[in-house]
Amino acid sequence: MIILSWLYAIVTGIRNGMYSFSILKSKRVVGVEVICIGNITVGGTGKTPMVQYFAKKYLDEGRKVAIVSRGYKGKRSIDPMVVSDYTSIKAKIDESGDEPFLHASCLAGIPVIVAKKRYEGVELAKKTFNSDLVILDDGFQHRQLFRDKNIVLIDATDPFGGGKLLPQGRLREPLNGLKRANEIIITKSNLVGRAEIEKIVSVLQKFSKPLLYSSFSSLLLVEDKEVDLKKILGLHVMVISAIAKPENIYKTVSSFRPNFIEERPFPDHHHYTPADIEQFYRLKEQKVIDFFVTTQKDWVKLSQLLSARHKKDWVVIKQNYILGEKLDAII
Questions:
Q1: How far apart are CA 303 and CA 318, in angstroms?
Q2: Which residues, including other chains, have CB under 8 Å from residue 11's CB and lie 6 or more apart?
Q3: Does the structure show a pLDDT above 80 at 331?
Q4: Is the distance from CB of 249 to CB of 295 less than 8 angstroms?
Q5: DSSP symbol at 273
Q6: What is the C-alpha separation between 43 and 269, in angstroms, rounded?
Q7: E strand or H helix at 14
Q8: Average of pLDDT values for 279-291?
Q9: What does pTM read for this prediction?
Q10: How far is it, in rounded angstroms, from Cα 172 to Cα 180?
Q11: Which domains does the chain show, CATH number per domain?
């Protein structure tokens, strides 16, 4: 693992150096402002809801917004591809990947595009939707596309990936990569103590970047309708998730004080199958589970496998982000 991390560091350093010294050049799409929401660690920083937060913010300001994503694990014959336009979803989830499909499901009036070459995705947004602002979902390390602003998310519960590069740790690149950031946001600030936040800030201060904090409040949804947070109070629930850091979801569910939590984690971006659903319901009968609890990211996949009758058995956690310049203002 150590040798592989060294090799990864060498390759990453050479590549970043070639862009820094203009040996390789980033391509700009004229007339489109590109704002990247990214991170320096793999998975679980809260990027998906943050992309939606900024997309809504700029839409409310009157901008013609689109979202461009790589479409991780999407299997499609056309690339780049429009996942959704202003009015409807045009792609299937297995074509787009789960996160772009979630964006398309949650963001009416904001086109979503997937593209392996993000430059081509931005070009398509400009040509098809006359977009003047594109939110680049998870593109901090994708330097082929010029961006006007890099917003980097640091997860308060695991800020620096153990301090080691992939595959030994969770860092995608050395911390010095934060020099390219225009703004840094510490996410999940409400899940750790003030002392932990102060340690993170002490590391980030040397980069002299504007620093924001974010926390989230949770809502519970049943059949896409908001229900009281006491919905699962004292009940037996099974938490099903295929996300990078399921422990944060368990912590959130525990705060709703169910009587019993059965955990069923899957690998990040897991593709659920009818066999999975059958297994869940067998366990529901064996363990006398009252409700299944899952995330919005998982729900866009799971809901397509469930009948209308079975959807009533599921509670979905929706997280709303709160963003501020001062920690006291958001926790």
A1: 15
A2: none
A3: no
A4: yes
A5: -
A6: 10
A7: helix 2-20
A8: 95
A9: 0.94
A10: 14
A11: 23-209 (3.40.50), 218-318 (3.40.50)
